[in-house]
Amino acid sequence: MRCADADRERVAEVLREAAAAGRITLEELDERLDAAFAARTYGDLEPLTADLPEQEANTEPLAPSAGAERAEASRPLVLKSSAGTIVRKGEWVAPRRIEVTNPMGSTVLDFRSAALSSGTTEIALTSSWGEARLVLPDGATADVRVDASWWGSVDSRVPADPDRPNPHFVVTGEVKGGNLKIRYKSRFDDMFGLHG
Fold first, then answer.
1. Contact 155/108 with Cβ under 8 angstroms?
2. Closest CA to 81 of 98, 109, 97, 103
3. Which three-class secondary structure string do you get for 29-41?
4. Which of 46, 97, 150, 192 could make an S-S bridge to 122, C-beta 3.0–4.6 Å?
5. Domain edges within the chain
6. What are the DSSP calls for 52-70, one per residue?
7. Which helix (H) or strand (E) segment is 196 a member of?
8. Residue 131, Cβ neighbours under 10 Å: how many?
9. pTM (predicted TM-score)
């Protein structure tokens, strides 16, 4: 099962406590922290604390919670239009996954004042023959894996590698014949009324 950023952070805290107690070296701490933040599943996380005493390697954080709050946070936000305009700006809740379909339309997602539900936000974007702009909080990073073949373009002005604890975005999808721009606050803000 896929793990969340909160699970990675809990494991990282266990590792830091183990290093402070002298159970693992600082070099081991660095290696395990790298592995923890790169983990995708609970199976990836479990070996990182398996050799630590039970009170430190508490497995409870690795068990997915079943509360309604977690279910709500994991539900994707689906935004659909065709040749229309989709805008999210100001104060809004951005769940872990956002799915946008707006061919031949204009899409603007401004995350600067958004409440992010996860340290990593996934954006699945279909905006072929249209335009899309993502405005990220200062310091945020974005791994962009978008198909822009057939005269499309992707222009990201933010770093791709995660820089914790800053928010990280993973952008997938396609903008064939269209364009995608990813920025921090920029001149586009005034053009699109992004003052929030």
1. no
2. 103
3. HHHHHHHHHHCCE
4. 97
5. 5-64, 70-191
6. S-TTTS-SGGGSPP--HHH
7. none
8. 17
9. 0.61
